[in-house]
Description:
The chain is α/β, with parallel strands linked by helices. It has one domain (12-293): Rossmann fold (3-Layer(aba) Sandwich). It contains 12 helices and 7 strands. Helix 7 (172-186) links the parallel strand 4 (159-163) and strand 5 (192-198). It starts with 12 loop residues before the first helix and ends in a 5-residue tail after the last strand. S-adenosylmethionine is lined by residues 7, 9-10, 12-13, 15-16, 19-20, 91-93, 95, 114-115, 118, 140-142, 164-166.
Amino acid sequence: MSKSKLSKHRHISFTAHYTGYIWYQMGISHSAFATPQGKALALLAHPVEKLAEKYIGGSMRTTLKTRHTLLDEHLTQLIEQHPNLQVLEIAAGLSPRGWWFRTHYPSIDYRELDLPAMAETKQASLTMINLNSPEVLSADLFTQDFKNAFAVFDPKRPLVIISEGLINYFDKALLMQLLKSIVLYGQDFKALHYLTDLYPEPVQNKLAKVIWSSSKLLKLLSRSAFSFHFVTPNEVKQFFTAAGFDQVDVVQPKVYFAEPNSQRLNLHTDHPDHQQHQNEHLGDLVWMIHAQLNEPKA
Ligand SMILES: C[S@@+](CC[C@H](N)C(=O)[O-])C[C@H]1O[C@@H](n2cnc3c(N)ncnc32)[C@H](O)[C@@H]1O
């Protein structure tokens, strides 16, 4: 892909080196995804993170762990429901998820996608681990190349799109464009699921002020429109529904992690605990969205 075919929303790749290193530090990744840039950024952030964890009770990396766990557990559940699942992880960066799920669930078809430079870096890391790793798809989500990525999959099988650490970088208009593209390109699949994390407006949280200031810094460094778009889960539901999804669940960690492991994933739309909190921001810094299309209701 030539540089002229890239949208202007592409300056956030450096953050993938940071998160890539954090996944490695957490012991859930492979050294092949830990880059020197990631290590340098993690070292730089470490003192502030330590202070935040000691005095405020949470930090950037604790929200990373939360979002990663939510996405992994929901993906695992979808694989258990659909053993022939196909997965497209967009903006995959240096996340270990594709490698881990391909290793543990060989029956699924799991592909990753990112901007050309990051796709190349990821490909090199994957090849270090396994010469037969599938090709990392190279595409800008706001160009025709994104549509072409869907052609790699079989529409007779269900497809999951996953994004992590992505959608707050776009303004609302662009986010709507992305969601509508996912619905349009995925509408002929047997079932379409979209799993994503989302940082809501930080309210009722001791970290709120720190998060606001950090978000301004991130906006500047990434030359993006980094912002918080939603205050209540219902606002998220309406937005995703307007984009064309027919079922939308907003998962709030305070509700989700309060349940024993075996019960967590039953907390879906019709569950009373879930219903009760759909119009209430419970103070979590990160949520997970599970949006669906064409999936018969359980
Ligand atoms: C914050 S990083 C997150 C990486 C990974 N998902 C994680 O959680 O570790 C954001 C990723 O989005 C990718 N990205 C940004 N704009 C994009 C676009 N327009 N099309 C495709 N990928 C994009 C960047 O290259 C980067 O890898």
